[in-house]
Amino acid sequence: MKIKAVSPLIATIILIALTVALGAIIVGWAKGYVSNQVSNLGAQVEILQVNYNNSNGNISILVQNIGSTQLITNNLLVEFSSTNGKSQKCPLVLSGNAQGYLACYVYNITDPSSGNSYINGTIPQNSLFLINMTVNMNSFGITSLSGSTIYVYYYDNPISTGYTLS
What angle do CA 159, 38, 80 make, to 5 degrees? Predict the structure, then answer.
């Protein structure tokens, strides 16, 4: 009985095709990873102070841009993590219509010294800014904001350490 093998030419073509396919997969992954890292290059903030109201879920977060780049305001998110383990990224909402459907949302970002809004603008380096947000405590199944943790995100990546509400 004579066993036939794949010809060397066909074997070479198959190996080249597999190499090209694997290379395309690696390039696709690396492109997404690198672009995500570059968009956050130099972005870092420090949460200085948080004031909150347990009766209505309003939170004011005083933040400083300590990174080496300006921040595009509309790309900021705040993550709210409640004491019962539920967590939600809270977007900037410019339309009042969507607010009733969200568990949490940011409704304004301002310069605390002048009161001017940073919405649709940029936050300069070393600047203080105030993030005003609302948390629907019923959506999280909590009665108090105490013990919850706040994080600031930029382009969906964390740029602050957590700040626990006391």
Answer: 25
Three-class SS string for 88-136?
EEECECCCCCCHHHCCEEEEEEECCCCCCECCCCEECCCCEEEEEEEEC
Enter the pTM of the model: 0.76
Structure tokens at 39: 């968009």
Q: How many CA atoms lie within 13 A of 104 on its CB side?
A: 24
Reported as a single tens digit per residue, the pLDDT across 138-152 is 999 999 999 999 999
Biggest CA–CA distance in the chain, Å, is 91
How does 9-41 read in b/e, with b if 16+ C-beta sit within 10 Å?
eeeeeeeeeeeeeeeeeeeeeeeeeeeeeeebe
